[in-house]
């Protein structure tokens, strides 16, 4: 019993001698934006890179010995003209091409007529002269090196090559 009384006395002495806890300064909470006020920026996608606009299609194809675009391609040319009209700082090089059949001189002239024809349509649709240049590569830059109808059809084209 003496041990219990002695233990109780020691415990009360230790408790009485304990130092008072220091007051703790209140912690300021860092400001946190309310989830309803956070604005997330959306990266603006250039319509030229957006597959939904159709402007990612930049080649027009022709029948053999023809320098007029197909009716099916006219809306595409109109879309590019509208884009250029609303983006006056953008420039595009119209690259006329031909397949390997025919003389080099003939193919250069045909490819130039193809590029110039697209240029005229772009100008009519709202593009400015300073935005457009046309060049003929004739048969010099084939996209397809096959020597058959499929390869030749792929090489009869005008490419719209936008400057970066």
Topology (SSEs and partners):
Elements: H1 2-17, E1 59-61, H2 74-86, E2 92-97, H3 104-124, E3 132-138, H4 149-155, E4 157-162
Parallel strand pairs: 2-3
Antiparallel strand pairs: 1-4, 2-4
InterPro entries: Bact_OuterMem_StrucFunc (IPR050330), OMP_bac (IPR006664), OmpA-like (IPR006665), OmpA-like_sf (IPR036737)
Keywords: Cell outer membrane, Membrane, Signal
Protein name: Outer membrane protein P6
Structural class: alpha+beta
Give the helices and strands as they follow along the chain: HEHEHEHE
Strand percent estimate? 5-15%
What is the number of beta strands? 4
Mind describing the biggest β-sheet?
4 strands, mixed
Task: Give the overall form.
Answer: elongated
Quaternary state of the chains:
single chain
- State the CATH architecture: 2-Layer Sandwich
Q: Specify the helix fraction band.
A: 25-40%
Task: Give a brief description.
The protein is an alpha+beta fold and 164 residues long.
Describe the structure.
The chain is of the alpha+beta class. It has a single domain, classed as OmpA-like domain (60s Ribosomal Protein L30, Chain: A), CATH 3.30.1330. It is built from 4 helices and 4 strands, in the order H-E-H-E-H-E-H-E. It has helices at residues 2-17, 74-86, 104-124, 149-155; strands at 59-61, 92-97, 132-138, 157-162. A 4-stranded mixed sheet has the order 1-4-2-3. Helix 2 packs across helix 3 (104-124). The longest helix has 21 residues, at 104-124. The protein is elongated, with a radius of gyration of 38 Å. It starts with a helix and ends with a strand. 22% of the residues are buried. Mean pLDDT is 85; it is low at 33-38.
């Amino acid at each position: 019993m003496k041990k219990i009384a002695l233990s109780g006395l020691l415990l009360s002495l230790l408790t009485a001698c304990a130092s008072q806890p220091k007051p703790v300064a209140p912690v300021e909470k860092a400001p946190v934006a309310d989830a309803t006020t956070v604005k997330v920026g959306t990266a603006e996608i250039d319509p030229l890179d957006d597959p939904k606009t159709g402007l990612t299609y930049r080649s027009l194809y022709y029948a053999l010995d023809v320098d007029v675009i197909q009716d099916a391609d006219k809306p595409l040319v109109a879309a590019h003209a509208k884009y250029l009209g609303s983006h006056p700082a953008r420039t595009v090089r119209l690259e006329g091409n031909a397949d390997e059949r025919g003389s080099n001189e003939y193919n250069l002239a045909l490819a130039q007529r193809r590029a110039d024809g697209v240029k005229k349509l772009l100008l009519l649709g709202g593009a400015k002269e300073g935005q457009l240049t046309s060049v003929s590569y004739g048969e010099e830059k084939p996209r397809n090196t096959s020597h058959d109808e499929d390869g030749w059809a792929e090489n009869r084209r005008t490419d719209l090559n936008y400057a970066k």
